[in-house]
Amino acid sequence: MAGFRTLDDVNVAGKTVLVRVDLNVPMKDGRITDDLRISRILPTLHELSRKGAKVVVLSHFSRPDGKPVPEMSLKPVAAALATALGSSIPFAEDCVGEPAQSAIDKLRGGGVVLLENTRFHAEEEKNDLAFAKRMAELGDIYVNDAFSCAHRAHVSTEALAHLLPAYAGRNMEVELKHLQAALEKPEKPVAAVIGGAKVSTKLELLGNLIDKVDKIIIGGGMANTFLFAQGREVGKSLCEKNLADTARDILRDAVTRGCAIILPDDVVVAREFRQGAPSKVVPAERVPADQMILDIGPVAAARLGTILADCKTLVWNGPLGAFETPPFDAGTVTVARTAAALTASGRLLSVAGGGDTVAALRHAGVAEEFSYVSTAGGAFLEWLEGKELPGVAALAAPAAVAAK
Ligand code: 3PG
Ligand code: MG
């Protein structure tokens, strides 16, 4: 891949390879509730192992704030990783120093070890050079397979890339390839579906996308702020009224720059927000004062389907309604299924990611049918904002050192 060295560019046999992955998986009562991040890193781990490397797995887990927090240990994840990988995985109680070194010393070629949560040390998040050197001492080569952590300039995501010969893992490679296909050199027309609750968290993203895509479809709570900015009644809907001016600026900017912003024609409203609450469909300009918008309506969903049918590329971030609380999932489900069908027929390249998006697509039963679903939350958003991701930039930087 242009700009990056990958596992194709290095001989790892007999080398100790530090692999940064994202094992920050959702857990409930000690059990992993979604193992997508684990399955995504298996190709890299298998390949390194098959090629005879000693594979040292690094990750953070949750936000322990620079000190050991027993409930945030990666130990329970080691067992899940071992099951997924089909081989036993020893666990080292620290990610640097003697515990790490002795666990690595016991590895044979092809063996895999998991080190404890990198964020148990405050230096990790400070991108501290001395700490980075201690970590780099453990290995010969650095592989970053954690796109979803690439927005963090931490020791294990950034500094290590400058201290060891650095390569993109297979997961990182696939992720970057799809993201480039979706926004950097996309087949046009390009549509973006942008949902979620708040405009305030997506301002930079909208500003960047206006220049890059042909149509921005806005749904979720965000759409309410835009409807309000256009002078519509939004009743009791979630709405950031203080951002009305900003929303109007965005709408104006979009016109000047040739990007169509599409707001829902009709919406689903209810008096209260709870599962199964009595609801009705109303035109977006007729929201009753005592009701709230909780989803896009069927006319909007059908129109969005027609719009997507005319596009070649789709970037999707955020649900179009309160999808976790039926019946307010209908809009998201309908549009997601349309996008999946267009993808299946080869007419659309569809890339989705960020926060609730994977859960929303899963709920619609189509997560597997998109061209690519990113496991990244914050990193996907920052990428949509057009920001340089430190973890990616460090890999792309001309290498100070290269492995033979
Ligand atoms: C994520 O879950 O988005 C990544 O693992 C990064 O975690 P963070 O937001 O705590 O840095
Ligand atoms: Mg995050």
Describe the structure.
There is one protein chain. The chain is an alpha/beta fold. It has 2 domains: 7-172, Phosphoglycerate kinase, N-terminal domain (Rossmann fold); 186-384, Phosphoglycerate kinase, N-terminal domain (Rossmann fold, 3-Layer(aba) Sandwich). Helix content is 38%, strand content 16%. The chain contains 15 helices and 17 strands. The strands form 4 sheets. A 6-stranded parallel sheet has the order 5-6-4-1-7-8, with helices on both faces. Strands 11-10-9-15-16-17 form a 6-stranded parallel sheet, with helices on both faces. Strands 13-12-14 form a 3-stranded antiparallel sheet. Strand 5, helix 3 and strand 6 (112-115) form a beta-alpha-beta unit. The longest helix has 15 residues, at 36-50. The model has no long low-confidence stretch (mean pLDDT 95). Magnesium ion (MG) binds at residues 377-378.
Give a brief outline of the structure.
The protein is 38% helix and 16% strand.
Number of domains: 2
Q: How many extended strands?
A: 17
What's the arrangement of strands in the largest beta sheet?
A: 5-6-4-1-7-8
Q: What is the CATH architecture descriptor of the largest domain? A: 3-Layer(aba) Sandwich
Classify the helix fraction into a percent range. 25-40%
Specify the biggest β-sheet: 6 strands, parallel
The small molecules bound here are: 3-phosphoglyceric acid, magnesium ion
Structural class: alpha/beta
Fraction of residues in β-strands:
15-25%
- CATH class placement of the largest domain: Alpha Beta
Spans of at least 5 consecutive residues whose pLDDT stays below 50 are none
Q: Given the structure, what is the number of helices?
A: 15
Radius of gyration using CA atoms only? 23 Å
- Give the integer mean of the pLDDT values: 95
- Say what the CATH topology of the largest domain is: Rossmann fold
| First-residue to last-residue Cα separation | 19 Å
Task: Specify the overall morphology.
Answer: elongated
CATH 4th-level superfamily of the largest domain: Phosphoglycerate kinase, N-terminal domain
